[in-house]
Amino acid sequence: MSKSLPYSMKDVHYDNAKFRHRSLFKVITQTLLTSNMRRECGSCSTGKFLGLLMIFGLACLMLTHTNKAHSVSDGLAKGIATNEEHKEVTDIGIRFKKLFRRAPRLPPRLSPDEKIIHHNFTGKLNEPNVEEQWKARQQNVKDAFTHAWSGYKKFAMGYDELMPVSRLGVDGLGGLGATVVDALDTAMIMGLDDVVSEASSWIESHLLDRIRQKGQVNLFETTIRVLGGLLSAYHLSGGDQGMTLAQKGPKPTIYLDIAKNLADRLLSAFTSSPTTIPFSDVVLRDSSAHSAPDGLSSTSEVSTLQLEFNYLSAISGDPKYSTEGMKVLAHLKTLPKTEGLVPIYISPHSGEFSGENIRLGSRGDSYYEYLIKVWLQLRDTQDGNFTYLHDMYEEAMRGVKHMLVQKSTPSELFFVGELPVGPKGYLSPKMDHLVCFLPGTLALGATKGLTKEKAMKDNLLTFEDLDNLKLAEDLTKTCFEMYSVTSTGLAPEIAYFHTKDYFESGLDGGNKSSEYVNDIIIKHADRHNLLRPETVESLFVLYRITQDPKYREWGWQIFESFEKYTKVESGGYSSLDDVTTVPPPKRDKMETFFLGETLKYLYLLFGDSSVMPLDKFVFNTEAHPLPIKSS
Ligand code: DMJ
């Protein structure tokens, strides 16, 4: 398969000439050099000499013709006592310098279209009550969260997850009551005091015992969901001079003490390993750790612990958590990569990558996400130089654009493919829903959490940032279309894209009125939906950064489909077996991230943009916000 159509600057059509200042001198000389005179005189040496003489004469005229009024007022304004004669000489000197100075490369500016984006979107936003409408929609999300929690509380309190159809609880994550901890900070942000009270008193009474007694857990899942949830709850309940969103519940130190106890046990994954790469599994009750049966760890898993471990070190005053976590990233920096892209497995025994499979879906995804987020978390601290993380991120994003991004047929959706047999092999046009974290990460990496408008006004964006932001917008559209192309309006777990090398008929999403029904192919085995957050996460970030209301509208459409097809009357929401069939068969599982992430991002998307600002908070990969500390 040809790799000749990667996403690149070519697709963005930035006309750099627009941003370059041309001096009067340059205009005259360029005109002369491209005129007929150049063609006629340039062929003989006398002609060349005359031409040069003329240019020189013109330049001298420009240099000696001074505008005194301008010079004097210039001097006065700067409070400089000037002597006219001296000033004239200085002016000539400056003009000479200007002659040889390169024209400044002006920063990219917002186009007029982008500037008026808030006012012309379907006309709706001119209505005075638009924010009221979004508040009402936000309330619907809050109600959905209450409904999800009520099902969990009734049928599964203390279990990891709810099986809403069977009305039972199930421990799929080691038995730490993962839904309680994952949901707590969402309830705090939503101001649901009763849920905060119920969840926090369960944590206060039971979680430490569970941690002491339970057996095997996955290092990554436990860190991002349970440790991350506790750390956010600590901050949002007033710890670390944080917010006091929680009116009810225990003192913040309770969360910190439990977090430390848990993390001390998780550290065994690092200390038992012969290399800096941690084992994937920890046995909590005896603080031991071992590798997975195949001896390997996932690349994304070993590189998606650092936000949490760094913050824990910052608030506990004990550097050991951060030290272990950051050793992993420092080691990954030294390993060979393909244009910044990495295989999805790594061996804790050798410290080397294993296999050649490269993808931004499962086992690869949050490696890329944490490179930029850990850099954002640490860049203003005085703890060391973390520029290498930013460099690794930028190199990887160039690699993504060059090696993985293609356009579908016939309607040209950008997608991120996979290299299952390595960089020399074919590009598979397969994209996991998990990859839909990428647009949000790209946008965040471009503006560092500021709005695009502010970042441009303050001259902070490079052309590469703009290129990444453009790709973020293109991929967000693709992720949204993965929803709207199906009969239920909900995305499958995996989509394939029709390209010149790949097509399978009879595998569309079922929504025949979608413009992309022939571009997106959904295989039978991939038709399930686990209530995943990645697309709404990117909608939230893209909305905050671009302020384009279409992202809110898309989020609303997705939310309505969740309401219509996944809600279970007796309480909770269910994952689905097949999004292409109406009504879709239910899978009977409410994942913890539906409360921890999906509903949190939807709530924030429809709400006031000053809540949890992206330049002050970094969300871990499970949507638990951690404050960005500065030195
Ligand atoms: C979550 O646990 C996290 O977002 C993780 O990074 C990826 N998978 C799930 C959600 O889909």
What does this structure look like?
With 631 residues, the chain is mostly helical. 51% of the residues lie in helices and 7% in strands. The protein has helices at 9-12, 24-34, 36-41, 45-64, 68-77, 84-100, 112-115, 117-120, 130-156, 178-190, 193-213, 219-236, 252-266, 268-271, 299-302, 306-316, 320-334, 365-378, 387-404, 438-447, 452-457, 463-484, 534-546, 550-566, 592-606; strands at residues 161-163, 168-170, 216-218, 281-283, 288-290, 297-298, 345-346, 353-354, 405-407, 414-416, 430-432, 494-497, 520-521, 617-619, 625-627. The strands form six sheets. The protein has a three-stranded antiparallel β-sheet. A three-stranded antiparallel β-sheet has the order 6-7-8. Strand 4 (281-283) and strand 5 (288-290) form a beta hairpin. Helix 2 (24-34) packs antiparallel against helix 4 (45-64), helix 10 (178-190) runs parallel beside helix 12 and helix 18 (365-378) packs antiparallel against helix 19. The longest helix has 27 residues, at 130-156. The chain is globular and about 55 Å long. Mean pLDDT is 85; it is low at 1-47, 59-105 and 115-126. 1-deoxymannojirimycin (DMJ) is lined by residues 224, 366, 434, 532-533, 593, 597, 621-622.
